């Protein structure tokens, strides 16, 4: 089976500072890969490159057979047109740490926007899909609430529904629980876990080590812009090889 | 104060006063609409423009905001005719107020757009919206809500500033009133009356603004 996501030799700099120093990562359909690592190691930046929220200078990302963001043309590396890039962004679903729901729209409108504007769906069809997904994340009852009327956990669940309703090839989660009060973390993790169990391909950044161990098919430990160690969760958490990872795990909460 | 005499003279002058009021409203509405449209572009250029464009627009805003409206009106009326652009006093006045309004609206729009968290744009992008769609469906609706109170304030400023057009001979409400006074010598009564009408105009604008604000406020 050909991989759904192939990242090869990815380099990314902010000005003079190189933040990603050659990342290689392959994912099969249905894989759940957790990115762990200390603050500033480049986890968020990696997700943002996959979602084309950041440009990158070197290397390539291939998603479902398409080269993401750039094409080779006569030996030259060219950025795709804005329209192409917008279309490719919709192939990945992103859930942000800060939810980023649109505050002037109800929950269901938030979910419908991309369906109507990007997928050009008729309103009725978009509404049906949005209702289905809000139901799935346990937010069916509150679909007509505005984000300001929802708790953080509820907002995050709506945000996940908004991303996944677009039927993306892969879901990206960036520390979706770290802005939440402790008592709200579980409800969001439960949603992510359900999606994983149903075979959704996901790449997630998390500080919840126990959760990463439970849901992941693979865990990737990043350090200073490189993949320092990767492997099955039992191996990464049970028998870490490198000193850095051992040190990192010793300082993490379980 | 002779109240019944005032009422009689008010009745006699009703047509010229109404025509003055009509001009005041026309000047204000035209300047606010034209100035707001121009101002939105000014704000967009300030927010998303290239560096050189932002610099030019910054100069434009600072120059217009640093100049008294009075001077602006005189400049539009006298200087433009020197350059061969012949505007009527009415047109020159509306032009001056439009420029004045655009600099204020430009600044308001810039402020409102830059106050929207970056995450909003990113969330819109990540569901595949283009920049244009992001602006129309995500940024503008949020910016407009924020802009509204200040924008209403600008509109009332324009109504007040429209009195300055009397200097270049536009017979708006103030000049119409002065003409009536020069005929009747009831200066106190008619100035009070004009003042009351201006107050009423701005009161209506502010109330309308509040009503709209309530309607579109986000829970
Ligand atoms: N827009 C930016 N401009 C400049 N530097 C940036 C920018 N975004 C991130 N960086 C830098 O890139 C490095 C990697 O950041 P990144 O956010 O990817 O780390 P992270 O692994 O997600 O960390 P955390 O666990 O704190 O979220 C950091 O040193 C950060 O300061
Ligand atoms: Mg991060």
Descriptive tags:
heterodimer, A: 254 residues, alpha/beta, Rossmann fold, 6-stranded mixed β-sheet, 4-stranded antiparallel β-sheet, 9 helices, 12 strands, 36% helix, 27% strand, globular, B: 219 residues, mainly alpha, MetI-like fold, 0% strand, flat, binds adenosine-5'-triphosphate, binds magnesium ion, amino-acid transport (chain A), ATP binding (chain A), ATP hydrolysis activity (chain A), nucleotide-binding (chain A)
The proportion of residues in beta strands of chain A is 25-35%
Question: What is the top-level CATH class of chain A?
Answer: Alpha Beta
Shape of chain A: globular
Helix content of chain B: over 70%
Radius of gyration of chain B: 21 Å
* Name of the level-1 CATH class of chain B: Mainly Alpha
Distinct helical segment count of chain B: 9
Task: Outline the biggest β-sheet of chain B.
Answer: none
Kindly provide the radius of gyration of chain A, computed on alpha-carbon positions and rounded to a whole number of angstroms: 18 Å
Instruction: Kindly report how far apart the N and C termini of chain B lie.
Output: 52 Å
- The CATH homologous superfamily of chain B is termed MetI-like
The major pleated sheet of chain A works out as:
6 strands, mixed
Name of the CATH architecture of chain A = 3-Layer(aba) Sandwich
What does this protein look like?
Chain A: This is ATP-binding protein. Chain A: Keywords: Amino-acid transport, ATP-binding, Cell membrane, Membrane, Nucleotide-binding, Transport. Chain A: Residues 5-249 form the ABC transporter domain. The complex is a heterodimer of chains A (254) and B (219). The model of chain A has no long low-confidence stretch (mean pLDDT 94). With 254 residues, chain A is α/β, with parallel strands linked by helices. Chain A has a single domain (5-251), classed as P-loop containing nucleotide triphosphate hydrolases (Rossmann fold, 3-Layer(aba) Sandwich), CATH 3.40.50.300. In chain A, helix 3 crosses helix 4 (123-136), helix 3 (107-117) packs parallel to helix 5 and helix 5 packs parallel to helix 6. Chain A has nine helices and twelve strands. Chain B has a single domain (15-216), classed as MetI-like (MetI-like fold), CATH 1.10.3720.10. The model of chain B has no long low-confidence stretch (mean pLDDT 94). Chain A binds chain B through residues 51-53, 82-83, 86-87, 89-90, 92-94, 96, 98, 100-104, 113-114, 117-119, 146, 148-149, 159, 162-163, 166, and chain B through 117, 119-120, 122-131, 133, 137-138, 141-142, 145, 218-219. The complex binds adenosine-5'-triphosphate and magnesium ion. Residues 14, 19, 37, 39-45 of chain A line the site of adenosine-5'-triphosphate.
């Amino acid at each position: 089976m050909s991989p759904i996501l192939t990242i090869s030799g990815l380099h990314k700099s902010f000005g003079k500072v190189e933040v990603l120093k050659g990342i290689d990562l392959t994912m099969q359909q249905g894989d759940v890969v957790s990115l762990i690592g200390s603050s500033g190691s480049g986890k968020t930046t990696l997700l943002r490159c996959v979602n084309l929220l950041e440009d990158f200078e070197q290397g390539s990302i291939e998603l479902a057979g398409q080269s993401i963001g750039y094409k080779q043309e006569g030996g030259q590396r060219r950025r795709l047109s804005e329209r192409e890039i917008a279309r490719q962004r919709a192939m990945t679903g992103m859930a942000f740490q800060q939810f980023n729901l649109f505050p002037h729209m109800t929950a269901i409108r938030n979910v419908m926007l991309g369906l109507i504007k990007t997928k050009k769906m008729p309103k009725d069809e978009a509404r049906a899909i949005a209702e289905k997904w809000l139901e799935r994340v346990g937010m069916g009852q509150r679909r007509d609430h505005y984000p300001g009327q929802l708790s953080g956990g509820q907002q995050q669940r709506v945000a996940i529904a908004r991303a996944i309703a677009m039927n993306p090839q892969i879901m990206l989660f960036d520390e979706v629980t770290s802005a939440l009060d402790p008592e709200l973390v579980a409800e969001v993790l439960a949603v992510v876990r359900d999606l994983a169990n149903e075979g959704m391909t996901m790449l997630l950044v998390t500080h919840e080590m126990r959760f990463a161990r439970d849901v992941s098919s693979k865990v990737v430990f990043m350090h200073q812009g490189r993949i320092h160690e990767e492997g099955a969760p039992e191996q990464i958490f049970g028998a870490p090889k490198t000193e850095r990872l051992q040190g990192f795990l010793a300082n993490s909460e379980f | 104060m002779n109240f019944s005499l005032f009422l009689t003279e008010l009745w006699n002058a009703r047509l010229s006063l109404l025509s003055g009021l009509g001009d005041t409203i026309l000047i204000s509405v035209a300047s606010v609409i034209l100035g707001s449209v121009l101002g939105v572009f000014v704000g967009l250029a300030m927010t998303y423009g290239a560096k050189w464009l932002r610099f030019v627009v910054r100069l434009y805003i600072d120059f217009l905001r640093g100049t008294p409206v009075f001077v602006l009106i005189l400049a539009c009326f006298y200087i433009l005719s020197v350059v061969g652009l012949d505007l009527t006093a009415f047109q020159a006045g509306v032009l001056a107020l439009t420029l004045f309004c655009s600099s204020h609206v430009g600044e308001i729009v810039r402020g409102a757009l830059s106050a929207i968290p970056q995450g909003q744009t990113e969330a819109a992008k990540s569901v595949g919206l283009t920049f244009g769609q992001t602006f129309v469906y995500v940024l503008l609706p949020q910016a407009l809500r924020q802009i509204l109170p200040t924008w209403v304030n600008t509109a009332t400023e324009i109504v007040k500033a429209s009195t300055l057009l009397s200097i270049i001979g536009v017979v708006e409400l103030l000049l119409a009133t002065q003409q009536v006074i020069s005929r009747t010598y009831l200066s106190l009564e008619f100035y009070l009356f004009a003042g009351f009408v201006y107050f009423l105009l701005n009161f209506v604008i502010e109330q309308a603004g509040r009503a709209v604000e309530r309607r579109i406020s986000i829970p």
